[in-house]
Specification:
Order of helices and strands of chain A: EEEEEEEEE
Strand content of chain A: 35-45%
Number of helices of chain B: 0
Distance between the termini of chain A: 35 Å
Number of strands of chain A: 9
Oligomer: heterodimer
Largest interface: A-B, 26 and 23 residues
Distance between the termini of chain B: 37 Å
Number of helices of chain A: 0
Largest sheet of chain A: 6 strands, mixed
Order of helices and strands of chain B: EEEEEEEEEEE
Number of strands of chain B: 11
Structural class of chain A: mainly beta
Helix content of chain A: under 10%
């Protein structure tokens, strides 16, 4: 299985909204609503921010939202804050019963 | 409260076998639907999913590493063990274990990770 495809980097100014894409195939994103997103700050453990395409873990800011269309998923961060500067990874369940992560996106706050 | 912690060697020589242990609390791998997975991350690179073991003993492996990986569980000790054979410098990475909840395919709870260097 190939890694899901994400843009290497996305940037935005404070207060703006940005969207990170995650492209898979009919064997993963296109087949299930089991897409999750993780935020990882340098040297830190990945943190779950979206699961089941659109759901947020309890207590997580509503500035993070997820969506899916066909074999692609997206993560939108609204009202960008300096603390949102981090790496973001998508992940999907596959028809083989495995999981696959994305290539990762570095978000920069200008 | 779910917690996980990885343990094992920090340095492994090429061709050796890596054995990592994930010790967890706050859930049981005898409970239907529970699972523990492993994810690794080479320095400066992306996350890579490795393996998953379920409460019923079913196991799943990354296709690219399947021939070298093995995941087992010891429910009496609340531990999951990952072995990776024939280690190579490209296997240098931080290895994480994580909890999988009933009916879900994401990881909300992660261990702190352990850096394994192959040299």
């Amino acid at each position: 299985q190939s890694a899901l495809t994400q843009p290497a980097s996305v940037s935005g100014s404070p207060g703006q909204s940005i969207t990170i894409s995650c492209t898979g195939s009919g064997s993963d994103i296109g087949h299930y609503n089991y897409v999750s997103w993780y935020q990882q700050h340098p040297g830190k453990v990945p943190k779950l921010i979206i699961y089941g395409v659109t759901y947020r873990p309890s207590g997580l800011s509503s500035r993070f939202s997820g969506s899916k269309s066909g074999s692609s998923a997206s993560l939108t961060i609204s009202g960008l804050l300096a603390e949102d500067e981090a790496d973001y990874y998508c992940c999907s369940y596959t028809t083989s019963g495995t999981l696959v992560f994305g290539t990762g996106t570095r978000v920069s706050v200008l | 409260q779910i917690t996980l912690k990885e343990s094992g060697p920090r340095l492994v020589e090429p061709t050796q076998t890596l054995t990592l242990t994930c010790s967890f609390s706050g859930f049981s791998l005898t409970t239907e639907g529970m699972g523990v997975g492993w994810v690794r991350q080479p320095p400066g690179k992306a996350l890579e999913w490795l393996a998953l073991i379920y409460w019923n003993g079913n196991t799943y492996y990354s296709p690219s590493l399947k021939s070298r990986l093995s995941i087992t569980k010891d429910t009496s000790k609340n531990q999951v063990v990952l072995t990776l054979t024939n280690m190579d410098p490209v296997d240098t990475a931080t290895y994480y274990c994580a909890h999988r909840d009933f009916g879900e395919y994401h990881f909300e709870y992660w261990g702190q990770g352990t850096l394994v260097t192959v040299s």
